[in-house]
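Dear Dr. L.,

I hope this message finds you well. Following up on our conversation about the binding site, I have prepared a predicted three-dimensional model of the protein together with manganese (II) ion. For your records, I am including the exact sequence and ligand specification that went into the calculation, followed by the structure tokens. Please feel free to forward this to your student if that is useful.
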Amino acid sequence: MEGEAAGLEAVRALYADHVTRQQAAWEEAMAEAQYDAVVVHAGSPLVSFLDDYHYAFRPNPHFLAWLPLTHHPESVLIVRPGHKPVLYYYQPDDYWHLPPTDPEPWWADHFEVRIEREPGEWHQGVPVGREAYLGDAPELEAEDDRNPPALLHRLHLARTRKTPYEIECMRVASRIGVRCHRAAEATFRDGGSEYDIHQAYLAAGRTDDAGLPYPSIVALDRHGAVLHYQERSRRAPERAGAFLIDAGATCHAYCSDITRTYARDEGEFAGLVEAMDVLQRKLCAATVAGTDYRELHLRAHGGVAEILADAGIVNCDAATTVATGLSSVFYPHGLGHYIGLQTHDVAGLIADASGREIPRPTGHPFLRLTRTLEAGNVVTIEPGLYFIDSLLEQWRSGPRRDLVNWDRVEALAPFGGIRIEDDVVVTEGKPENLTRDAFAAA
Ligand code: GLY
Ligand code: MN
Ligand code: MN
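The resulting structure of the complex is given below.
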């Protein structure tokens, strides 16, 4: 926790520089897309159907890109070239809910803050000219120029190159996530249920579900084969042999996204986990500027195929395993994605400000990142190897069924699957592995 406190100090020290960089990036995008002002709405709470309770509030990420304000619906930011950004800070008189606290100088000093008591007062602050509106708040529905692609693509591309402040936030989010992961692993080793493990994770992070960057995946044994397993069984298996956890944390809305897989005992599955760990580390080390992420993804397929061949799970060599599409039966998702304010961060597929898409490699429909890596990108590296019944059954009913050693599959299927996921900062030189660094420091 001490490291986290120090990290938060570092975060604050970098904030002024972040706002300066944001202003410069936005001014460039606004000039190119020809806007005089951009109005960014934090968002409005959504009410569930026929009810008066709200869904968990997820703010507009373009608002969060400026401000560490995660519980601030109805606030609005107005950005103009050459002007300090104006923040309409919504702080209602509300005796049903606790209103936001007063603005804190460490962030507020960089804005012209106007306290807003009623939603919509911000309209008075919109300058005359051509303005764009960003967000999905119902209040924006009357505006013509909402979320214009020419502006959004430019802002999204800018978001792929993180500022020092953003990377520091992600270091802190990684340290918190790792603290939670260690508590989760201990609860698995103690024989806890998925529910118990999830509660231990939340407690270690001093958070609740709404504070997580995405719903945690907490999977014992066969559940590890469900890629986005969403249940949390209250019943502990008699003796779970495998544990896959994909869960993160946040710092000022910046995410970590971490997956670890544990085998309880020595043996074949533990050997596979170890082999996947070696492969994953190699891929992380290759996550350098100038690399086409699609190549990394295909390299991961080659690596998984080798592991399958070495373990005798397939009856052919790695090249055949890839060429026939068999590697995708065991590894049916992409290698990873950009990460930042969103776990699956924006702009992973676009070539340039036109929004033209960079195609995925044929046969890899779920890859979320097809760009060439640049310094300042933060990406995940998350190869997997799973025993997924439905995909295996499909293969078994096809012409190449003999390429699989079905006895080995049957023996390993009770362990579910393996995924190992780190968050990596791309630099001109050696990549910074936020996740491994956090585990090493823990
Ligand atoms: N946790 C979702 C993902 O790894 O992409
Ligand atoms: Mn991920
Ligand atoms: Mn993940």
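In brief: Residues 142 and 221 are 51 Å apart (CA to CA).

With kind regards,
A. P.
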